[in-house]
Write a structure and sequence with these properties.
The chain is 12% helix and 38% strand. By secondary structure, it is mainly beta. The protein has 3 domains: 2-20 and 373-391, no CATH class; 39-199, Jelly Rolls; 223-368, Jelly Rolls (Sandwich), CATH 2.60.120. The strands form 5 sheets. Strands 2, 4, 5, 6, 7, 8 and 10 form a 7-stranded antiparallel sheet that branches. Strands 12, 15, 17, 18, 19 and 22 form a 6-stranded antiparallel sheet that branches. It is globular.
């Protein structure tokens, strides 16, 4: 009976290991992973006043020129009961909330950018989205400061918490005088939420998190930008090359970022240097095109860059997201089943008579392949121990 049990355990473990085509990615630095960059359809962000793009598409939380979220001028009563609520769609570990206002835009009365920024917050949590409880006032800190003509505000909890719902309640505004003043408002161009120090195993988060993923044995940043042709990338002004900052969600300060001058034949993409092969499922692109621009995709395999084609061998062509400057949402492109490799790149195929095509952000979803699930590893270890005990 013991021998049969040992054979069964080892055989089961081997079968599970062989069938483990993909496992959830491991983010070794949870504190650097933006929890709002997810393809969880249950995640939403709602506001008491004003409209968020997240109420239309749950993964669109940053824009380039104008505000994602703008309350408009608030009356004294509205200033007292204003709030913004995040439903993560699942329980998440949370410690830091970071916000960025738009650049000053005089036409809307925001000059300087600090005029669109609350001077204080209360933080509330809930398990059901109905009953909210405020965190003790001494359990977190808030501060904001101008940077790169914008204002970055940060709420830091003294200790990380686990919650599904997070509500931010402003307690003051830069100017609380006349109810008609445009200064008594809350504007957001970027909103990000991070967990506490630790490891995170999640399959529905953006893989393009250069300081969030586990590093390889050689100490390289696990995901880097690759480009072809002469293009421009906004200088983040933090001392690092722009390429190294573009995929860093935890960059200090939050700053605008854009890849521009993307003409025909030019490309931009990401390569993973952590020794893992990924099964890519969805690509998110926030872009701008002055004319009808299209792009193709290629995946990096052992044979080099391989274009994605349809079942007839024809190159798959996608339309680059467009629209007026300042209103770019993310557009999501499901990738063909079995799109596996160590990198992916976007290649401009056509762009009419314009060359200033831009990409403001990229998201990539998927999972590493050939990595056994934790339960599989446990069974393998159990089977191995059983074999050792049998030998004794």
């Amino acid at each position: 009976m013991k021998r049969a049990w040992v054979v069964t355990a080892v055989t089961t473990a081997m079968m599970l290991a062989g069938s483990a085509a993909a496992a959830d990615p491991v983010f070794a630095y949870r504190e650097n992973v933006n929890l709002l960059y997810t393809n969880n359809p249950d995640m939403t962000v709602t506001a008491r006043y004003g409209v968020l793009p997240g109420e239309v598409d749950n993964r669109s939380y940053r824009m380039y020129y104008s505000a994602d979220y703008d309350t408009g001028s608030l009356t004294p009563q509205e200033r007292q009961d204003n709030w913004l609520t995040i439903n993560f769609g699942e329980v998440c570990n949370v410690q830091t909330i970071r916000m960025m206002t738009p650049a000053p835009y005089a036409a809307d009365g925001i000059t300087p950018a600090t005029q669109g920024t609350p001077t204080g917050f209360e933080v509330w949590t809930s398990s059901d989205g109905v009953n909210f409880t405020p965190l003790p006032s001494g359990s977190y800190a808030y501060g904001f400061e101008p940077a790169n003509t914008r204002c970055t505000g940060t709420i830091t909890l003294n200790s990380a918490i686990n919650t599904q719902y997070l509500r931010l309640v402003p307690t003051g505004y830069t100017t609380d005088v006349l109810e008609t003043t445009s200064k008594s408002r809350w504007c957001l161009q970027d909103l990000r939420v991070f967990g506490g120090v630790g490891t995170l195993n999640r399959g529905n988060l953006n893989l393009l998190s250069s300081t969030g993923l586990a590093r390889g044995d050689d100490g390289l940043v696990p995901v880097t930008m690759v480009t072809e042709g002469t293009i421009s990338i906004t200088d983040p002004n933090d001392g690092r090359p722009a390429k190294d900052v573009f995929f860093d969600a935890a960059v200090e300060h939050l700053s605008r970022k854009v890849i521009s001058s993307l003409g025909v034949g030019k490309s931009v993409g990401a390569v993973f240097d952590n020794g893992l092969t990924y099964d890519f499922t969805t690509l998110g692109v926030m872009g701008y095109q002055p004319n009808d621009a299209t792009f193709s995709l290629a995946v990096l395999t052992e044979d080099g860059w391989t274009p994605l084609v349809d079942d007839k061998g024809q190159l798959l062509i996608y339309d680059l997201p467009g629209g007026p400057v300042g209103s770019q949402p993310f557009e999501y492109f499901p990738l063909p089943a079995g799109t596996q490799g160590t990198g992916i790149k976007l290649v401009i195929e056509s762009c009419g008579d314009g060359t200033d095509n831009r990409i403001y952000d990229l998201q990539l979803f998927g999972a590493p392949v050939g990595v056994p699930e934790p339960v599989t590893m446990s069974l393998l270890a159990l089977g191995g121990l059983a074999m050792l005990r049998r030998k004794r």
